[in-house]
Design a protein that fits this description.
The complex is a heterotrimer.
Chain A lengths: L2 H22 L3 H21 L3 H26 L11 H23 L17 H9 L3 H22 L5
Helix pairs in contact in A: 1-2, 2-3
Chain B lengths: L1 H18 L3 H21 L5 E3 L4 E3 L1 H21 L2 H5 L3 H20 L3 H19 L6 H32 L4 H7 L4 H19 L7 H8 L2 H25 L9 H19 L5 H21 L5 H30 L10 H4 L1 H15 L5 H15 L3 H27 L12 H19 L2 H4 L3
Antiparallel strand pairs in B: 1-2
Chain C lengths: L1 H4 L2 H15 L6 H29 L2 E11 L2 E9 L1 H24 L6 H20 L3 H19 L6 H32 L4 H4 L8 H18 L8 H4 L5 H10 L4 H8 L1 H5 L2 H22 L5 H21 L3 H28 L17 H15 L5 H16 L1 H26 L7 H6 L5 H16 L14 H20 L6 H28 L13 H7 L4 H34 L11 H6 L2 H22 L1
Antiparallel strand pairs in C: 1-2
The chains are: A mainly alpha, B mainly alpha, C mainly alpha.
C-alpha cells in the first residue's frame, strides 16, 4: 500500500466518521464543527487527486465562508439542544431504513462498474489551475459568462429580501 | 443567443430605471425589450445556429418554445399593472428578476450542453425562489419561498449528481456526444439517467416529487404563481424533452416503467385532490400537477410527435392559465379572497371576467373548440400511436374529473348569488390580455393547424 | 347548391349567438328576439333547400378544411349531409324556430332575455354541428357543446340553489356518459385507423364481433347519458328547473335525441353486434316502462312530461334495438312535434297560472285557455297513440318490429303504451277539467297566452296531427315515404338483419296488433276519464299516506336516494380517502396530523419548525429510493 493509498483510506474513514457525527451530534455547534472537519478531509482527497484548485476553493468557500455563516446563524438564532425539535423514534427508524436501502442500492449499482477509459483520468494535471482556466475560458466560456446572470439575479434578490420596506 | 442578450440587457436597464425612479417606463421598456427578443428569434427561424462549441443550439424547437415563454411573460407583465406596487415599492427589481428568470428559461429550451442546462435551471429557479417570497410581511409567502428554496436545492443536488455520473460514463456534457456513447456505458450511465429523471420530474412538479407545488403556488403572490405555472413549467418540460429526446433516445427501456407509474400517480393525485379544494388558487395548483401528468405522457412515449404535442399543450395551457390567474387576481383584489365563494355571482356582476374564466377553464378542462382540447388530443394521439390504450383510459377518466372541478368554479360564477353586486373595474391592458388570451384559445380550438405543424 | 350554402346552416345561429351574447346588456329586446328567431329561420329555410337537394341528388360530403393531423390520424372539418342528417336539420331548425318564437312571448319579462337567446342560439349551433359532422370527433364536439348549453339553460334561473344543483347533476351524469363515448371513439380509431363515418362503416364487417360489441356498448353508454336512459336518467326530470321552452327544445325535441341519432348513424356497427342490439333494446324497454310507472303519480305538470320523455326515449331505443331504425327515427320526429307541443302547452298553462306547476292547484282551465286546451288535446292524443295522430304510426312501427323479434317484448311495450295513455290523460284532465283549485288571485290572473306563444302551439298541433302521414305502413295501404327516403342510410343494416332472421309480418297480424293496442289505449283513456273527470279524484297532498307501490312510484322508486347511498357517498368517501391519505397524512406525516393545512394561517412558523419541509423532503427521498430500488435491483 503506497502512502497515497493509505492517506486516501485514512481521509475517507475520517470523512465518513465525521459526517456521521454531523448527523448524530445533539448540539448544533458541534454539528457544524464536524462538518468543517468533513470538508477538510474532502479537501485532502482533492489534493490527493492532484486537483489543487478545487481543494483550495473548497477550503476558502465551504470551510471558510459558508461555515462561518452557519455558525453565525446558529448563534444568532440561539439554537441549542433543548429548543431543537427532535424527530420521533419512528421517523428516525424509517430514516435509517431508507438511507440504508439507498446505500445498498447505489453500492450495488456502482460496484460492478469497471473503471473504463473515460472514468480514469487521462491527463494527470487536468485539475491544475492553469488547465482548468484554459478549459473554462475556451470551451466553457459561455456558461462561465452566463452564470453572471445567475449571480446578478441572486444579488438583486438578496438585497430585495433583506432590505427593510420603506413605506 | 441574441434574444438572451436582449433579455438580460433589458433586465439591467429596468433595474437602472428603478434606480432613477422612472416607474412609468418600467412596463413599456420591459415589453419592448421582450418584443425585440422575440423578433430576434423570429429572424433566425429555420437557421439552426449553434453558439460557442455547441453550448446552445437555436433550432426551431428552441425558437418556438422561447417565443412561447417570451409571449407568456409579456402577457403576465401586462397583467401586472400596479399589482407589484401594492406589495412594495421595489417594482423595478421584480421586473428585473422575472426577466432574468425568463433568460434562464430561454437557456433551458435551447441548451445543447448539460452545463448550460444546469445554469439555465439555476437561473430560473433562484429567481423564482426570490419571487415567491417578495411579500415579506405575509408569512405564507415567506413559507413558500423557503420551501421552494430548500426543496429546489435538494433537487439541484440530485441533478448535479446525475450530470456528474453521465459525464463519468461518457466523458462529455454535449447531448449529441452523449447520445453517441450511450450504449457503451450501461450501468453508470443508467444511474445518471435515473438521477436526472428524478431531478427533472421534480422541477416540473410530477408525483411523487410534487409536494412543493401546492404550497408554493398558494403561498406565492398570484401573478408569480401564474409565472411559475406557465413559464417555469413550459421551460421545464421543453428542457426535459430536449434532454431525453436527444441524449437518451438510444436507451428508452430504462425509464419507461418508472415514468408510467409517475404519470398515473400524478394524474390521480393532481386531479382527485384538486376536486376537493375549496380555494381556487390551490385548486389551480393541484390542477397544474395534473397537467404535468398529461404532458409527461409525451415524454414517456418519445417519438416524432412528442415535441409538437408538448408545444401545443404548453401553448394551450399557458394561455388559459394566464387568463384564469388574471381573473383570479382581479377577483382577489376586490373581494379579498380567492376562495370558491368569492366567485359567486361573477357572471352577473362581471360578465366579461366570468366569460373569460369560463373559456379558460373549459380550455384547461379540454372541452372541444378550445385550444386545450387539442392539447389533450395530441397528447392522447401520441399515446394511441404507442398503443397505450389503457393509459388513455385513465387519462380520459381523470380529464373528466378535471372538468368536474373546473366546473365548480363556473357553477359558482353563474349559478350562485353574490353578496355584493359591485363590478370590478379593469384597466385597458388587463382587459386586452384577458380578451387576447380567450381569442387565441378559441382560435386555436377552431383552427389548430396554425401551430400543429410548426415543428 | 348544397355545397356552397350548407355551412351557413350552423353558422347563422352562431352569428345570432355572437350578436346577442356580446351585446346582451345593450341590445333592445325587440332586436334580441328578432336576431334570435331570424337566424334560426334562415337555417330552417336553408335546411329545406338542402332537403330537396339531397332528395334529388343523394348524400354529400362537404370538406371545409383540414382540421387535425397527427401521425396517421387525419380529421377533416367536414360535413356529411345525407338523408338522416337532412331530416334532423329540419327537426332542429323547424321546431327550434317555433320555440324561439314562443320564447319571445314566454321570456318577455325576464331580465336575462338577451342572455337566454344567446344561449338558445348557441345550443342550436352545437346541435347542428352534432348532426352535420362527418366524423365522430365533430359529433363529439357538438355533443359536448349541447351539454354545456343545456347545463347553462337548466341553471338559467340560478337564484334558486336547487336549480343550480339540478344543473350540476345533469352535467355530472352526462360526463359519465361522455366518458364512454370518448373511449369508444378512441377504440374506433385504434380499430379502424380513422374516425370518419365514410372510412369506418364500409370496413365495419372486417372487425371482430367482440371489438364491435365493446365499441358499440361504450357508445351506448354515451347515448344513455345524453338520452336519459336507465340508469343515467335522473338528471332529466331535475332538468325541468330550466325555463319551459328550454325543456321543450333541449330536453324533449332535440338534444336528448342525440343518443338515438348517434346509434342510428352507427347502425351498421350495432347490427353486427347482436349483444349490443339486445342491450339497447333491453335498456330501452326497461326505461320505457320504468319511467311510465313513475309518471303515473307525479303532480308537477313538467315532471309528468319529463318522465314521459324518458319513457318515449326508451321506446326509441327499443326500436333501435329491435332493428326498427326507421321506426325509431320516425318516432324521434313525431315525438319532437308532440312533445314540444305538450311542453309549450304546459308552459302556456304555467304562464297563465303565474308560475304554478302543481296540477293539484289547477283544474278547469279549459274555458280560460281554449287554444292551449285544444292544442294540448291534439298532443295528448298523439302521444297516446290514437290513429290517425302522428304518434300512432311511429309507435306502431316500433311495436310491430318488436313483435317480429319477440311477442313478449311487444306485450310489455303495449303495456307501457297503456300507462302512457293513462298518465297523459290524467295530466290533461287534472289540468283542464273539473273545477279550478288554485287561489283566488291566480283565478283572477288566468288568461290565454299572447299570439307569439299560441301560434307555435297551433303549428305544432298541426304537425302532431298530420306528421304521421309520412310513414303510413304498407298494411294501411300507405306508402312509407320516410322509409323510402332513409333507405340509403339503413339499407345495408336492414339487409343484414333480414338475412339473419324473421320474415315479414302478414297484414292480418299487423291489423290485429294495431287493433289490440288501440283498444287498450282507449280503455286506458276511458279509465282515466272515469277517475279524474267523473269522480274528480285529486291526488293527495305530499303528506297523505300511500300504499306500497303507489308510494314507491310517488317517490320515484327512491332512485335518487339509492344513488346517494351507492355512488355519491362512496365517491365522496373515495375522494376523501385520497385527499386525506395522499395529501394530508403522508405529507404532514404522523407528527403533524391533518387539519393544520386548513388552518394554515395560524402559527405557520411553528409548523415549519416541526419538520414540515423535512417531511416533504423525506417523502421525496423515499420516492427516490423506491425508484432506485426498482430500477437497479429488479
Amino acid at each position: 500500500m503506497t502512502i497515497t493509498q493509505s492517506l486516501f483510506y485514512f481521509l475517507a474513514f475520517v470523512a465518513i466518521f465525521s459526517s456521521l457525527l454531523v448527523v448524530t451530534a445533539k448540539n448544533p455547534i458541534h454539528s457544524v464543527l464536524y462538518l468543517i472537519l468533513t470538508f477538510f478531509t474532502l479537501t485532502g482527497e482533492y489534493i490527493l487527486l492532484n486537483a489543487q484548485f478545487i481543494g483550495i476553493v473548497n477550503i476558502i468557500v465551504y470551510a471558510g465562508a459558508i461555515m462561518v455563516l452557519f455558525l453565525f446563524v446558529i448563534m444568532l438564532l440561539n439554537l441549542n439542544v433543548e429548543s431543537e425539535p427532535q424527530k420521533t423514534n419512528l421517523m428516525k427508524f424509517i430514516g435509517i431504513i431508507t438511507g440504508g436501502i439507498g446505500l445498498v442500492v447505489l453500492t450495488a449499482a456502482l460496484k460492478s462498474t469497471d473503471p473504463s477509459n473515460t472514468v480514469v483520468i487521462q491527463e494527470v494535471d487536468m485539475g491544475l489551475v492553469k488547465n482548468l482556466g484554459q478549459v473554462l475560458f475556451k470551451e466553457f466560456l459561455l456558461p462561465f459568462e452566463i452564470v453572471s446572470i445567475l449571480f446578478l439575479s441572486a444579488m438583486v434578490g438578496a438585497v430585495l429580501l433583506a432590505r427593510k420596506e420603506t413605506k | 443567443m441574441s434574444s438572451i442578450i436582449i433579455i438580460a440587457i433589458t433586465a439591467i436597464v429596468v433595474l437602472y430605471l428603478g434606480l432613477y425612479k422612472v416607474k412609468s417606463a418600467l412596463l413599456p421598456v420591459s415589453v419592448l425589450g421582450l418584443l425585440g427578443a422575440a423578433a430576434s428569434l423570429v429572424c433566425v427561424w429555420d437557421k439552426n445556429i449553434s453558439y460557442f462549441n455547441d453550448m446552445l443550439v437555436f433550432n426551431n424547437y428552441a425558437i418556438a418554445f422561447s417565443i412561447l415563454l417570451i409571449a407568456t411573460t409579456i402577457l403576465i407583465f401586462l397583467l401586472s399593472g400596479n399589482y407589484f406596487e401594492k406589495i412594495s415599492s421595489n417594482v423595478a427589481e421584480y421586473y428585473t428578476i422575472l426577466l432574468f428568470a425568463l433568460s434562464g428559461g430561454v437557456v433551458m429550451v435551447s441548451f445543447q450542453n448539460m452545463s448550460m442546462l444546469f445554469i439555465g435551471i439555476e437561473i430560473l429557479s433562484v429567481s423564482m425562489y426570490i419571487m415567491a417570497g417578495i411579500k415579506k410581511t405575509d408569512s405564507a409567502s415567506n413559507e413558500a419561498a423557503l420551501k421552494y428554496f430548500l426543496m429546489g436545492s435538494f433537487a439541484t443536488g440530485i441533478l448535479l449528481f446525475g450530470i456528474a455520473l453521465i459525464y463519468g460514463a461518457t466523458g462529455s456534457f454535449n447531448l449529441v456526444q452523449i447520445a453517441g456513447k450511450a450504449s457503451e456505458q450501461p450501468l453508470l450511465f443508467y444511474a445518471g439517467v435515473i438521477f436526472m429523471l428524478i431531478a427533472m420530474t421534480f422541477k416540473v412538479g410530477v408525483a411523487p416529487f410534487h409536494f412543493w407545488t401546492p404550497d408554493v403556488y398558494q403561498g406565492a403572490p398570484t401573478l408569480v404563481s401564474s409565472f411559475m405555472s406557465t413559464v417555469v413549467k413550459t421551460a421545464g418540460f421543453a428542457a426535459f424533452l430536449r434532454l431525453f429526446g436527444s441524449a437518451f433516445t438510444s436507451v428508452p427501456a430504462i425509464w419507461t416503467v418508472t415514468l408510467v407509474v409517475m404519470v398515473v400517480l400524478t394524474l390521480l393525485i393532481g386531479n382527485i385532490t384538486a376536486a376537493f379544494q375549496q380555494n381556487v388558487k390551490r385548486m389551480l395548483a393541484y390542477s397544474s400537477i395534473s397537467h404535468a401528468g398529461y404532458m409527461l405522457i409525451a415524454i414517456l412515449l418519445l417519438g416524432q410527435a412528442s415535441p409538437n404535442a408538448i408545444l401545443i399543450y404548453s401553448v394551450a395551457y399557458s394561455i388559459a392559465s394566464v387568463a384564469s390567474f388574471g381573473v383570479m387576481v382581479a377577483v382577489k383584489e376586490q373581494k379579498g379572497s380567492d376562495d370558491l365563494s368569492a366567485f359567486n355571482g361573477l357572471g352577473r356582476t362581471n360578465p366579461v371576467l366570468a366569460f373569460v374564466m369560463t373559456v379558460a377553464l373549459c380550455s384547461l378542462g379540454g372541452i372541444p373548440l378550445t385550444a386545450g382540447f387539442f392539447g389533450k388530443f395530441y397528447i392522447f394521439g401520441v399515446a394511441i400511436a404507442a398503443n397505450y390504450t389503457w393509459l388513455i383510459a385513465i387519462a380520459v377518466l381523470m380529464a373528466a374529473v378535471g372538468i368536474y372541478y373546473y366546473f365548480k368554479v363556473i357553477i359558482a360564477m353563474y349559478l350562485r348569488e353574490s353578496e355584493n353586486s359591485e363590478s370590478i373595474q379593469l384597466s385597458l391592458a388587463y382587459k386586452f390580455v384577458l380578451i387576447f388570451c380567450i381569442m387565441i384559445t378559441i382560435l386555436l380550438g377552431i383552427a389548430p393547424a396554425l401551430i400543429t405543424n410548426i415543428l | 347548391m348544397t355545397e356552397q350554402l350548407a355551412w351557413l346552416i350552423p353558422v347563422l345561429p352562431l352569428i345570432g349567438f355572437l350578436i346577442n351574447g356580446l351585446g346582451y346588456k345593450k341590445n333592445p329586446k325587440g332586436l334580441v328576439g328578432l336576431v334570435g328567431c331570424a337566424t334560426v329561420l334562415g337555417s330552417f329555410i336553408l335546411s329545406i333547400l338542402v332537403f330537396f337537394d339531397i332528395k334529388a341528388n343523394g348524400a354529400k360530403t362537404i370538406d371545409l378544411y383540414e382540421w387535425i393531423s397527427v401521425g396517421t390520424l387525419k380529421i377533416p372539418f367536414s360535413f356529411l349531409i345525407d338523408q338522416l342528417t337532412s331530416i334532423m336539420l329540419l327537426i332542429i331548425t323547424g321546431v327550434g324556430f317555433l320555440i324561439h318564437v314562443y320564447s319571445t312571448g314566454y321570456m318577455h319579462d325576464d331580465e336575462g332575455y338577451g342572455k337566454y337567446f344567446a344561449y338558445l342560439n348557441l345550443f342550436v349551433f352545437f346541435m347542428l354541428l352534432l348532426v352535420l359532422g362527418s366524423n365522430y370527433v365533430i359529433m363529439f364536439i357538438g355533443w359536448e357543446g349541447v351539454g354545456l348549453c343545456s347545463y347553462l339553460l337548466i341553471g338559467f334561473w340560478f337564484k334558486k340553489t336547487e336549480y343550480a344543483n339540478a344543473a350540476k347533476k345533469a352535467f355530472v351524469m352526462n360526463r359519465i356518459g361522455d366518458l364512454g363515448f370518448l373511449i369508444g371513439i378512441f377504440m374506433l380509431f385504434s380499430t379502424f385507423g380513422s374516425i370518419s363515418y365514410a372510412d369506418i362503416f364500409p370496413q365495419a364487417q372486417t372487425a371482430s364481433t367482440a371489438v364491435l360489441t365493446t365499441i358499440t356498448l361504450l357508445l351506448f353508454v354515451g347515448a344513455m347519458g345524453k338520452s336519459a336512459q336507465l340508469p343515467l336518467y335522473t338528471w332529466l326530470p331535475d332538468a325541468m328547473a330550466g325555463p319551459t321552452p328550454v325543456s321543450a327544445l333541449i330536453h324533449a325535441a332535440t338534444m336528448v335525441t342525440a343518443g338515438i341519432y348517434m346509434i342510428a348513424r352507427s347502425n351498421i356497427l350495432y347490427v353486427l353486434s347482436p349483444i349490443s342490439m339486445a342491450v339497447v333494446a333491453g335498456i330501452g324497454l326497461a326505461t320505457a316502462i320504468f319511467a311510465a310507472v313513475i309518471a303515473l303519480t307525479q303532480n308537477d305538470i313538467k315532471k309528468v312530461l319529463a318522465y314521459s320523455t324518458v319513457s318515449q326515449l326508451g321506446y326509441m331505443f327499443l326500436g333501435l334495438g329491435v332493428g326498427a331504425f326507421t321506426g325509431a327515427f320516425f318516432h324521434v320526429m313525431t315525438h319532437a312535434f308532440f312533445k314540444a307541443l305538450l311542453f309549450l302547452g304546459a308552459g302556456s298553462v304555467i304562464h297563465a297560472m303565474g308560475g304554478e306547476q302543481d296540477m293539484r292547484q289547477m283544474g278547469g282551465l279549459k274555458k280560460h285557455l281554449p287554444i292551449t286546451w285544444f292544442t294540448m288535446l291534439m298532443g295528448t292524443l298523439a302521444i297516446a297513440g290514437i290513429p290517425p295522430f302522428s304518434g300512432f304510426f311511429s309507435k306502431d312501427e316500433i311495436l310491430a318490429h318488436a313483435f317480429e323479434v319477440s311477442p313478449t317484448i311487444w306485450a310489455i311495450g303495449v303495456g307501457g303504451a297503456l300507462l302512457t295513455a293513462f298518465y297523459m290523460f290524467r295530466m290533461f284532465f287534472l289540468t283542464f277539467n273539473g273545477k279550478f283549485r288554485g287561489t283566488e288571485e291566480q283565478h283572477h290572473h288566468l288568461h290565454e297566452s299572447p299570439a307569439s306563444m299560441t301560434i307555435p302551439l297551433i303549428v305544432l298541433a298541426v304537425l302532431s296531427v298530420f306528421g304521421g302521414f309520412v310513414g303510413v305502413p304498407e298494411a294501411l295501404h300507405g306508402s312509407h315515404l320516410l322509409n323510402e327516403y332513409l333507405s340509403p342510410v339503413f339499407g345495408q343494416s336492414t339487409q343484414i338483419l333480414n338475412a339473419a332472421h324473421h320474415g315479414h309480418l302478414s297484414h292480418e297480424t299487423e291489423y290485429a296488433l294495431m287493433g289490440a293496442s288501440v283498444l287498450g289505449v282507449l280503455i286506458s283513456i276511458f279509465y282515466a276519464y272515469t277517475v279524474y273527470v267523473r269522480k274528480e279524484v285529486v291526488p293527495a297532498a305530499e303528506t297523505a299516506p300511500r300504499s306500497g307501490l303507489e308510494k314507491a312510484s310517488y317517490n320515484k322508486f327512491y332512485i335518487d336516494e339509492i344513488y346517494n347511498a351507492v355512488f355519491t357517498r362512496p365517491l365522496d368517501s373515495l375522494s376523501q380517502l385520497f385527499y386525506r391519505i395522499l395529501d394530508k397524512s403522508i405529507i404532514d406525516g404522523v407528527v403533524n396530523g391533518f387539519g393544520q393545512l386548513t388552518q394554515w394561517s395560524a402559527d405557520k412558523f411553528r409548523r415549519i419548525q416541526t419538520g414540515y419541509i423535512g417531511n416533504y423532503l423525506f417523502m421525496m427521498v423515499v420516492g427516490i429510493i423506491l425508484i432506485l430500488v426498482f430500477n437497479f435491483l429488479f
